[in-house]
Amino acid sequence: MIMNLAWTVIVAQEVEQISEEGSSGAALLLPAPEELIAGIIAFGIIFAVVWKFALPALQATIEKRQDAVRMNLEAAEKAKVEAESLLLDYRAQVAGAKGEASDIVAEARDAGEAVKADIIARAEVEADQIKVRAGEEIVSERERAEADLRRQVADLSIDVAERVVGSTLDADAQRDLVDRYIDELGGVQ
């Protein structure tokens, strides 16, 4: 506050001095020639110091910043190119993987068809074997049934012959008689 008061007093004295001299208001706006020369000299010195010391440092800083920005842009461009390359590689890998997957599915389908055909072929072979065995069993059973039937017919024939003849025949004679009888029956059929 004291400073403000001091400035106010100084300005008031200046205004009073100017009004006593009878100058116009332009004197308030224009500096005194001594002050103007001192200001120009001070400006020249400051300009020379700034030109000599501050400007090169400022230019070096600006150049460093420009270089850093340029390098960052180049790095960003390089990263972009790499990213695009990787993207293309990944797309190619995905396409290859899709192709491989479809190949695997096709191979699995073909393998499944082959297994199916193999199972069907084995089943047909097994069915044929079962048919052959069944045929053999039928023939065997038929032969056995015929043999059993011959025995039964022989026994019945012997019983009938014994009743008719009234005497007992020996076993060999009975068999010969039955075999002849069966052969005669077989010839009739």
Q: Can you give keywords for this protein?
A:
mainly alpha, 93% helix, single chain, 189 residues
Straight-line distance between termini: 157 Å
Query: How much helical structure, as a percent, in the residues?
Result: over 70%
Regarding quaternary structure, how should these chains be classified? single chain
Mean pLDDT: 81
Helical stretch count? 4
What percentage of the residues does DSSP assign to strands (E)? under 5%
Q: H/E element string?
A: HHHH
Rg to the nearest angstrom?
A: 67 Å
By secondary-structure content and strand pairing, the structural class works out as mainly alpha
Any idea what the shape is?
rod-shaped
Low-confidence stretches: none
Main beta-sheet strand count, sense and barrel state: none
Give the beta-strand count. 0
What does this structure look like?
- This protein is mainly α and 189 residues long.
- It is built from four helices and no strands.
- Helix 3 crosses helix 4.
Q: What topology emerges from the helices and strands here?
A:
Elements: H1 2-21, H2 26-29, H3 33-165, H4 171-188
Helix pairs in contact: 3-4
Explain briefly what this protein structure is.
The protein has helices spanning 2-21, 26-29, 33-165, 171-188.
